[in-house]
Amino acid sequence: MNEIMRKFKIDLHCHSYFSSDGVSKPEEIVAIARSRGLDGFAITDHNTCDCVDYYRQAGLIREDGMPVDGLLIIPGQEISTAEGHLLALGVVLPNLKGISAHEAVQMIHAKGGVAVAPHPYDIFRAGIREKVLDSLELDAIEVFNAATTLGYCNRRARAYAERKGAAMTAGSDAHLPQAVGVSYSILEMETLTVQGVLAGIRNSREVVENYLSTKEALRKTFHNLFRIKAKKINFNLK
């Protein structure tokens, strides 16, 4: 007898301070996710899975893919491919910066994960553009990104997904703790597990759409500029 499908709130796009432009401590992300009533979130730092390792060592990610104290953390990474950013969910990968998008998708699928194109139409960020999207075997399109600069970029992403009949996801793209869970996907599954989330993404259509507040957006921009400047200063001192 089949179990009843339930709906779970999952933020599929979150960054910690292990991202070059993130400032959130791993514990802060967990605390905010719980306070916002999320059932889980994906940790998708830029070109690294160091935070995944951190959570595992802290006992917050289980090897069997089950939640810890009711909260599920999905391992992932935001890969800076040669053609733009790509979310790899449900997998642990090395730094693949500069790899082609096609190779990245193949690697993600070979490891049993799902590949999602984030913010593909945001002209201020390196999303994978439509010409390349058309040629990729993606599992879903991120149709709402809470940190997207202009609303029409999200609307174009949704229109593309609808035109292609693709699954749709949403995420906060949180680089600050306060942004976690601002936007998220609602996924259907029998049991809250990493494998359940991956299956849910492939059939995802329901998302919760909220933008970052002006204050949060400005803080994100400030921290981005500050950390980039700091990296340049450190580089020059070497």
CATH class division: Alpha Beta
Order of helices and strands: EHEHEEHEHEHEEHEH
Query: Largest beta sheet: what is the strand line-up?
Result: 7-6-5-4-3-2-1-8-9
CATH topology (fold) name: TIM Barrel
The CATH H-level superfamily is Metal-dependent hydrolases
Count of strand segments: 9
Overall shape: it is globular
- Percent helix: 25-40%
User: What is the CA-based Rg, rounded?
Assistant: 17 Å
The overall number of domains is: 1
SS strand fraction: 15-25%
- What oligomeric state is this? single chain
Main sheet overview? 9 strands, mixed
The second-level CATH architecture is Alpha-Beta Barrel
Determine the N-to-C terminus distance: 64 Å
Q: Count every helix, treating DSSP H or I runs of 4 or more residues as helices.
A: 7
Structural class: alpha/beta
Mean pLDDT: 91
Please give the structural blueprint.
Elements: E1 6-14, H1 26-35, E2 40-43, H2 50-57, E3 72-81, E4 84-89, H3 101-110, E5 114-117, H4 130-133, E6 140-145, H5 151-164, E7 168-171, E8 184-189, H6 194-202, E9 206-208, H7 214-237
Parallel strand pairs: 1-2, 2-3, 5-6, 6-7
Antiparallel strand pairs: 1-8, 3-4, 4-5, 8-9
